[in-house]
């Protein structure tokens, strides 16, 4: 570490662009969701549950799918439970823990909010790229995600 | 909004890859910084101050540079002040508000921590791309960042 290989100007611009784009985008999407009372994190959880069989997922699976710790997810689910969007459920014949389940209110909420959210993602992200860039972005991130998933500590 | 243009599978993969890469990467960089007692956000603030004349920036400039609200930055600076990394300072001949200033401890900390952090950014991000992809990533994000900065509400 005595003679660190600092980032080149180009590498630094790419790294800072990734950070800035993500931060600006998540602020904008949160603002666009504001009227619905959902945060971007809430939205992501509702989508995951709505795409699962019986609209439910194990808490551990949901934590993996949304890339956060069990304890952080647990706080978030408590807030969403208070808002009537999800409930927790213990499955009698399955000792592997608690499920998060979409409520009817959660299901109508995600159906109502999804079109506007997709419109936001389109206008602030997808439509500012060429189709080739959309493909390139996935290609760029695929090995980075695989690497980071592989070294991720057990949770 | 009655007939939303849902994302195509390719568009959805690109969007989710952006989100997943950012979340995994920020968790990993936070873990790599853990021994230093800094979070990725702390690090970013120290870098911004260390690159500024006299190691200081107006709070409003620092909030812009790190893309966060004044109130969120203010809480963060309070925590970093308690850790002895920065101080707040009012400039007598300048009524435009408070400055955040790097302390000597903040300056030695960033010098000590920077080589390891750059190594992390290299090994988990930069080195998993070809030089062409590094350039492509900046090119992809440039118009997205410009668009989002332009529509960002006044803070």
Written overview of the protein:
Chain A is built from 6 helices and 3 strands, in the order ααβααββαα. In chain A, α1 packs across α5. Chain A has helices at 9-33, 40-50, 59-65, 70-82, 104-124, 131-151, and strands at residues 56-58, 86-90, 98-102. Chain A is globular and about 55 Å long. Chain A is mainly α. A 3-stranded antiparallel β-sheet of chain A has the order 1-3-2. The first copy, chain A, has one domain (11-151): Orthogonal Bundle (Arc Repressor Mutant, subunit A). In chain A, a hairpin with a 7-residue loop joins β2 and β3 (98-102). The two termini of chain A are 30 Å apart. At the A-B interface, α1, α5 and α6 of A face α1, α5 and α6 of B.
Structure, briefly:
Chains A, B: GO terms for molecular function: DNA-binding transcription factor activity. Chains A, B: Residues 1-146 form the HTH marR-type domain. Two copies of one chain form a homodimer. Chain A is mostly helical and 155 residues long.
């Amino acid at each position: 570490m005595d003679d660190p290989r600092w980032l080149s100007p180009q590498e630094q611009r790419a790294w800072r662009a990734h950070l800035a784009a993500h931060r600006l985008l998540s602020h904008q999407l949160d603002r666009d969701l504001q009227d619905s009372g959902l945060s971007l994190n809430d939205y992501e959880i509702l989508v995951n549950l709505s795409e699962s069989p019986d609209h439910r997922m194990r808490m551990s699976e949901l934590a993996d799918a949304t890339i956060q710790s069990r304890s952080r997810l647990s706080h978030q689910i408590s807030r969403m439970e208070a808002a009537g969007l999800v409930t927790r459920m213990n499955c009698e014949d399955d000792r592997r823990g608690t499920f998060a389940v979409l409520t009817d209110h959660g299901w109508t909420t995600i159906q109502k909010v999804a079109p506007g959210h997709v419109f936001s993602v389109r206008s602030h992200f997808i439509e500012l790229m060429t189709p080739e860039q959309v493909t390139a972005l996935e290609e760029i991130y695929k090995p980075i995600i695989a690497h980071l998933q592989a070294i991720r500590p057990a949770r």
